[in-house]
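User: Hi! I'm working on a homework problem where we have to compare a predicted structure to a textbook description. Could you give me the structure for the chain below?
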Amino acid sequence: MMVAAAITRDSVPVLRRGVRRQFDRTRNCAILMAPERVIVLDEIADAIIESFKPAATVSDIAAGLATRFRAPAQEIEEDVIAFIRELNDKGLIVL
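Assistant: Happy to help. Predicted structure tokens:
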């Protein structure tokens, strides 16, 4: 049985090899391309993934998004952790 990685404020999420974010002109939106999968991203999901940078922690990502969207940092951080957990559960990222 595989144990899911704990996601903390200090976790550094990275798209798994073979997964990439791109803009789909047909759908007119951002998508994640993964082997045999396409995931359509809404504006917030795309903003989170766009924030994945080398050495950017969950806390860094949340702080940047809180400023960008003028939202409470704690609320944004909770949403970011939940979304990253979902991506991790689907095997789309590594921590």
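For your comparison, note the following. The chain has three helices and five strands. The first helix runs from residue 43 to 50. Good luck with the assignment!
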